[in-house]
């Protein structure tokens, strides 16, 4: 069962090509898959142009522990360099309810 969700809302720099950014997403997903407590990741783009990176973890501690690896790995650094630092928010949430089936 998912215990925590990390939600990152951001914009990429206007000079970054979408294809380059999506390649960075793939590279960092590979990195994240090696991290203790990682469950899954969904990256999407809103109509407004903002991006949503939703990561599912076993715990908030696991999510926060991965930050150091992400910041020191070459793929993580490249991904971070593509982000517009002025339009960046991150939230860590504990799951309080979950439903996976239709009524």
UniProtKB/TrEMBL annotation:
The protein's matches in InterPro entries, at most eight in alphabetical order, are given as: ABM_dom, Dimeric_a/b-barrel
Lineage of the native species?
A: Bacteria, Bacillati, Chloroflexota, Ktedonobacteria, Ktedonobacterales
- Domain (ABM) spans 5-65
Annotated coiled-coil positions are: none
Pfam families found in the cross-reference section: ABM
Q: What is this protein called?
A: ABM domain-containing protein
Species source reads Ktedonospora formicarum
């Amino acid at each position: 069962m998912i215990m925590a969700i990390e939600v990152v809302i951001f914009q990429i720099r206007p000079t970054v090509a979408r294809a380059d950014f999506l390649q960075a997403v793939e590279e960092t997903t590979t990195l994240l898959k090696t991290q203790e407590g990682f469950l899954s990741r969904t990256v999407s783009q809103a109509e407004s142009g903002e991006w949503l990176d939703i990561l599912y973890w076993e715990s908030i501690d696991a999510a926060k522990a991965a930050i150091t690896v992400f910041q020191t790995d070459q793929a993580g650094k490249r991904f971070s360099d593509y982000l517009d630092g002025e339009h960046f928010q991150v939230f860590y949430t504990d799951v309080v309810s979950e439903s996976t089936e239709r009524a």
